[in-house]
## 1
Amino acid sequence: METEQQQIESTNSTSAEATVALPGAGNQNLPMLPPANQSNEQWRQIGRQVSDFLEQLPVYLGSFFNQYKQPLLTLAVILSAIVALKVVLAILGAINGIPLLSPTFELIGIGYTTWFVSRYLLKASTRQELTYEIRDLQRQILGKEYSET
């Protein structure tokens, strides 16, 4: 083992490019590092390239957004809908955790469903009234007439 260390030390110390890794008392067993070969001009060139890229970044991002505007907006709407759905589900989960609110809301839902069925779905004349109301709402929202099908 001592012979290997002596060989390493002799190899490192005979090299003309080798320098001490760390100044101090215990660097006899530390490997030697070669001196830095890159000049300051190379670092300046890299700095200029990075600076030019950062300078052109707003132009690149603007052209990217203009080129892919519709897919990006679609993706944003989808992600927003997913986040909104998660928030609504979390709120409903919190409400269901309150002891008396969950059965109260179930009773309200059953009562409203019963009223809706009895008001609009039992008689043909009221079903026709509901159909007219739905078409009127569609016309107001979409701004065009739908033919009866």
## 2
Amino acid sequence: MQPLSILVLHGPNLNLLGKREPGIYGAVTLAEINLLLQEQAAKMQASVFAMQSNHEGALVDAIHEALGQHQGILINAGAYTHTSVALRDAIAAVNLPAVEVHLSNIYRREDFRHHSYIAPVVIGQISGFGAQSYFLGLQALVHHLRKDEV
């Protein structure tokens, strides 16, 4: 089994996890999520490379740079989920399997959060399970990437 490389992208304001609206987003920090993702990935013979940015263009650049370096993308685009055609187009352009994750259930929140520009170009979406959404997303992505390996 070949080791996999997964790019993990965290969008705007996720650097404030643990402090920002803990009733919605929980008390786990982004550093803790990244550490737990590394541990989970290692158990699945994968590596994760995490990046957080509050800047849409930096996230687009990271998606472009993933081509040839990573086999898949795990993305929590934060508010850009609901606004960014640029992120949607970047994911479609690189054509790498991607999973969209959200800490909160975006469909139980404000109406504007119910639409995702990202969802149509990813293999799946997981929301509403707090930090566990990331781990479920990673598991699903690795499973998808390995499904043809026997």
## 3
Amino acid sequence: MKTNSPLLMAPFGATSVLIFGVPDSPLAQPRNVIGGNLVAALVSLIVLHLFGSSPWTMGMAVATAIGMMQLTGTLHPPSGAVALVVMMTKAPWQFLLTPALEGSIILVLCAVVFNNLAQERTYPKHWL
């Protein structure tokens, strides 16, 4: 499905640095990757559809997404950029599933395979 969200490459690129480069990091664990991206997408979609896209609502979406990730224990730094992508592209509600959820799951599954091919690496350290 075409999402018209090419800017999503930036947050997924940053996610890739974490899950492939520092897979032991708490911020790179599946709960944080999937949960953080979903929380950020949901929060920013709510802000977008209630208040529109403007500089102040972009800031509000990112700040609220960070707060909600902290509250839910799903902090994932690249998810702040997910919130910006939603706001900048005026994403539809479908963005929550594709690409946010599907892309996050695919990245985590790739990280599980890649990181566990080497004997000295294991990923994830924990799922939840």
